[in-house]
Amino acid sequence: MQHATERLSRDRVYTLQPTVPRALLELGKDAAGSLDPSLIHLINVRVSQLNGCVFCLRMHSDEARRDGEQQSRLDVLSAWREASEFSVRERAALAWAEVLTDISHKPVGDQVYREVSDHFTEAELVNLTAVILQINCWNRLAISFRF
To answer: Which fold has domain 10-145?
Structure first.
């Protein structure tokens, strides 16, 4: 049986490159003022599911519940297209998050862009995109070093 290679700790990564966590925190800062916190939690959890980031899944699921998100919605988030628990606006945001997270495998189509644009102002769309970029970066950092 092969043992996992020990990686740098989260604290060590942040000590060696303190601008990374600061930059990532800054990236999502404006979104917090313009988007519903519940939506941000849903995006963070869904993108973390897609990327397979256990560290971020635990953290963002706990934060979502702490802030009042219903466990029943978190339970069906991976099947949001079939679940009735999500609003049209949330569905548009989740579709946008999935497309941007999987951008290397397929292009960002006009239909998903039109749908998200129908439910978010230009500023909200840019902020939503920043949240998606932010959590994707956090996921990659946490997965790379096995936080």
So the answer is: AhpD-like (1.20.1290)
CA distance 79 to 95: 12
Question: Residue range 27-51: average pLDDT?
Answer: 95
Q: Which two tokens stand for residue 103?
A: 């951008």
Angle, helices 88-101 vs 122-145, to 10°: value is 50
Rounded CA Rg of the chain: 16
CA atoms lying within 13 Å on the CB side of residue 101? 26
Measured distance CA(10)–CA(87) in Å, rounded: 36
The whole-chain average pLDDT of the chain stands at 96
pTM for the whole structure:
0.94
- Is 67 in a helix, a strand, or coil? coil
pLDDT digits (tens, 9 = 90+) for 114-140: 999 999 999 999 999 999 999 999 999
More confident residue, 32 or 101: 101
Domain spans of the chain? 10-145
Q: In angstroms, what CA-CA distances link 97 with 18, 42, 110?
A: 27, 10, 14
